[in-house]
Amino acid sequence: MAVESWTVPTPVKDLAALVDEPPSRFVQREEHRPGSLMLAADMPDPLPIVDLNKLSTADEAAKLRSALQTWGLFLATNHGIDASLMEDLMEASREFFHQPLQERQKYSNLREGTRFQLEGYGSDPVVAQDHILDWNDRLQLKVEPEDERSLAQWPKYPESFRDLLHEYASKTKSMRDRILRAMAKILELDEEEFIKQLGASPQAYARFNYYPPCPRPELVLGIKAHSDGPVLTVLLVDREVGGLQVQRENTWFNVPFVPHTLVINLGDSLEIMSNGIFKSPVHRVVTNAEKERISLAMLYAVERDNVLQPAAGLLDEKRPARYRRITEADFLEGVKEHFSKGIRMIETLKI
Ligand SMILES: O=C(O)CCC(=O)C(=O)O
Ligand SMILES: [Fe+2]
């Protein structure tokens, strides 16, 4: 459903070129500010690096289980995606974001000037006058089901963009399935349990995030604290510029970036499906004054008509459901509505 926007936002990239100070609409309330960037702690124990080729071994499965129960995210290596494909796709998206405004606006996420839709290029809709905006622009494209792609929204420039995204998306989709099978196995469920819960035509979006440098990074957030609503996010982060942080026990930790590894981030839907055994992490992105940063999040969700609920095999008298059932369509609406207010939709479903 389209949301009416209060104002037509200028992409942050173009705004950043004009100002010495972030406009007040971007300035976070004191308690949400990144603080001194140095204060965010490095991880107490290294974030687990899981070798996807070894998921059938007990050691690797134990590492994955511990990562999912504590951080809710891990780094994946041996994921089967060529380093050159990852680099070429990041470079192509950088070229897209570097085009003049007029070219980028051809893919705008606003219809008739003000009606916001999920797909396309731009910033978040300004849904309330007191809504604090994120210091980023994004290009969001539906990639699954494949026959629902609106190719008109896929950039024509650079020419390689569409083929690269197509190839990358087919690889990350099979990664999704490998990881979901390993997760079901860890919980002693049928290996296909979570894949079945995705339904016959599950949805996926590619979200390219562009964070321009910010003259006062201590005042703004690239993306405010949130957890991802869908089942699983496969995140390709900038290989040179950090910024992603994950929260644990009220402390923010810098997520390390290791070239050519992918960050796998569990989403709220899977927290529900695992009845809370696996955690969907709260994370955010901080900016810096010197360098732009790019990331690509592949967000994997269930089919729109499906119901999100804990797997039956995890429930019994001693372990009742910890989340209310909800249709995916209602859940997504709720996530959108709650995000701008900084509230996690999943909190509203807890029993
Ligand atoms: O840019 C990043 O590293 C994270 C992006 C993110 O959290 C998101 O797109 O949901
Ligand atoms: Fe996220």
UniProtKB/TrEMBL annotation:
<dbReference type="InterPro" id="IPR050295">
    <property type="entry name" value="Plant_2OG-oxidoreductases"/>
</dbReference>
<keyword id="KW-0223">Dioxygenase</keyword>
<protein>
    <submittedName>
        <fullName>Leucoanthocyanidin dioxygenase</fullName>
    </submittedName>
</protein>
<dbReference type="InterPro" id="IPR005123">
    <property type="entry name" value="Oxoglu/Fe-dep_dioxygenase_dom"/>
</dbReference>
<dbReference type="GO" id="GO:0051213">
    <property type="term" value="F:dioxygenase activity"/>
</dbReference>
<dbReference type="Pfam" id="PF14226">
    <property type="entry name" value="DIOX_N"/>
</dbReference>
<keyword id="KW-0408">Iron</keyword>
<keyword id="KW-0479">Metal-binding</keyword>
<dbReference type="InterPro" id="IPR044861">
    <property type="entry name" value="IPNS-like_FE2OG_OXY"/>
</dbReference>
<dbReference type="GO" id="GO:0046872">
    <property type="term" value="F:metal ion binding"/>
</dbReference>
<keyword id="KW-0560">Oxidoreductase</keyword>
<feature type="domain" description="Fe2OG dioxygenase">
    <location>
        <begin position="202"/>
        <end position="302"/>
    </location>
</feature>
<comment type="similarity">
    <text>Belongs to the iron/ascorbate-dependent oxidoreductase family.</text>
</comment>
<dbReference type="InterPro" id="IPR027443">
    <property type="entry name" value="IPNS-like_sf"/>
</dbReference>
<dbReference type="Pfam" id="PF03171">
    <property type="entry name" value="2OG-FeII_Oxy"/>
</dbReference>
<dbReference type="InterPro" id="IPR026992">
    <property type="entry name" value="DIOX_N"/>
</dbReference>
